[in-house]
Each structure stands twice: as structure tokens, then as C-alpha cells.
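Holo prediction — pyridoxal-5'-phosphate.
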Amino acid sequence: MENQYIQDTEQGLLKTYNRFPVVLDHGEGMYLYDTDGKKYLDFAAGIAVCGLGYGNQEFGNAIKSQVDKLLHTSNLYYNTTCGEAAKELKRISQMDRVFFTNSGTEAVEGALKAARKYAYEKKSGRYEFIAMEDAFHGRSIGAVSVTGHKEYREPFEPMLPGVSFATFNDLDSVKALVNEKTCAIIMETIQGEGGINPATPEFLNGVRKICDENDILLILDEIQCGMGRSGSYFAWQQMGVKPDIMTMAKAIGNGIPVGAFAMTEKVAQHSLKPGDHGTTYGGNPLACMAVKTVIDIFEKEDLIGHVNEIAPYLTEKLEEVVSEFDCAVKVKGKGLIQGLQITKPTGEVTKKALEEGLLIISAGQNVLRVIPPLIVEKEHIDEMIEKLKKALA
Ligand code: PLP
């Protein structure tokens, strides 16, 4: 008999996902457990969210104490944790001004609005966006408009006017689209959903140069690749460029829904002002306690140092799979955002992996996305490789 929760879920929820046939109940460290007590090694981290893994005591205690203290105030008042979290996020992102949202999509929406407002204040007449093919930025109309997958956009057309798509890592294709109406260029520093494609430093630097020469803003989306996963807090920090606006979400809250967009003072001075943008929940004390505590734990435990130490081992073991399996083509990505390109249908492999007790998800058409909690150790990588090999066989 099917698990009662699966039936309940499908009776009540809008069917927008082809979910795996498993009901997860609790977690501990790198593992999740279903309602039958079956144990799963987690290499998906709730789609790059649970950087600290499951059951982190310090994180849990901070959240519990905030629940008892204060949950909500609205943005009509200051609250203590919001200011503290903003200060910390500002420090690690090297940005000057932060706006808290409730999700990544909202962070992208805010970033697009901030860029349009900058153009409006400058009376530049610019409103167009250049985005990238294979990009993913979320599911609202604005975010879908800059998402580089036709099948995500088409059912919801017409999209935002003035969006064109360049080829990721092809500078000439960007140059060909730039014109006097271009307001901003938006891209992920490492494409996640599109198949784990890092921007090359040459491409990113080239895009930065185009922006500087044409008074165009550069928006970097670090929602999936950010918060330590790439081996630095944000992936652009390893590439000698700085965005004008950036987006964050997912792992900054470790499971508490929170996102943010942030910008330099230069942009902020000519962008969103009181009345231009807002949110009831964004910046609420609970979400901000999550952000503040995540950053505290990152610093105390040197999680970024750990990512840099462990990531080469993950690459090495995935390369081993490539040399052993004809269906495994190549390893992509960096840090703990890696991908294994395969020729077999990814859905078949992820399903078999689930049976083996491994949670792993796909990206793009033919890539297995390897995005474990950042606390992963060598023994977990070995266990994952063993299960993955069985799933690929
Ligand atoms: N941007 C990127 C790069 C993402 O990977 C995602 C989600 O996967 C989003 C935006 C949307 O974030 P959310 O699902 O929190 O709205």
C-alpha cells in the first residue's frame, strides 16, 4: 500500500511537481530519514539550501529562542536581528545596501526593479535586460522573463518587454545585444538549474567591462551558487569582478525562507526609495536570526575553508566515475556545486539512487547535480560514489 502521506499530498496539493515517491520525516547531519525509517545520504541539500546539514544544535537553538522572543514587526519599525543580519550580509557580500525578501525569486524581482529605478532616476531611457540562455532566476513573471529556457516562458507570454538572451560564456553574443536601451545584464555566476556551468573569469570580466563602458548595471544571481558553496562566500569573489547588484537566498537561511538583494552605494543612491518597493515579511526577526546565525557558524567553523579542502576530493572521485563508466561524460563546476554529465536519462539514475538510499537531483538535460550540505566529509563522498555507481550500472 502506498504511504498515506503521498496520497494525502496528491489529493490536496496543486500538482506542480513530479515528486520522488518518498516522504521525508527528519534529518541528522548529512542524512535524512523517511516515514519508514529508511536512511538517505543527502547530496541535494534541499536544492542547495541546507548548507549546515540537518539538526545543527546552535542553529536550532537560535531559531527556537527567536520564536519565543519575537516573530514579526513589519518593516514600519526597526527590529534588532534585521539590522544585525544586514550588517553581516553587507560584510560578507561586499555590498553596501541590503533588502531582505522571502525567497530567491523575490530577490530577483527586487534586483530587476532596482536596476529599472536606477535608469529612471538617471533619465537614461534604459529599460532592457540582457539575460543568458540556460539561466534560471525563478518563477514569477519578471524572473521567468529573464530565465533562459523557452519552455518556462512560453505558457506565460507575453513576458516583460525588452529582454534578450545571450549565450553564456560567449562575450561576442553579449556585445551583439548591447544597445542604448540596455539597463542591466543579469546572470548566475555559476548556472545551477541550467546544468552547473561556471562563468569563465574572462567572460565575467568582459561583461563587467561592457557594463562599465556603457553605464549598464551588472546583476549577479548567487542564489544557488552563493553562501560558500563555490569556495568563497560568493562565486564572483574569486573572479576579480564585483556586481552592482546581487541576489542571494537558499543557504543564507539554511531552511528558514529568506532571500536578499544587495547593491553598491553608487546604485543605491539612485535607486529604490521609500514607496518604491516593500514586503510584509521580508526582514522579519526569525528569518534574520537565521541569516545571522548561519554566518556566525560559517565563521566559527571555517566552513569555507572546509569546502576548499574537501571539494578536490569530490572532483577526484567523480572523475573516477567518468573513467569507469561509459555513460559518464564529464565533471563540471567548482567547490561543492559540481555536476556529472551523463548520457543515460537522469530521471532513471536519480530514481535508482533513491532506491540505493541516495538523494541526488538533476540539472539541465543531462547533468546530475552534486550539491551536498557543506559539512560533507570524505566518508560521505565515498558512500555517495558507491551508491552512484550502483545507480549508473
Ligand atoms: N535564482 C537561482 C539561480 C536559483 O537557482 C533559484 C532557485 O532554484 C532562484 C533564483 C529562485 O529562488 P526561489 O526558488 O527561492 O524563489
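READOUT: The mean pLDDT is 97.
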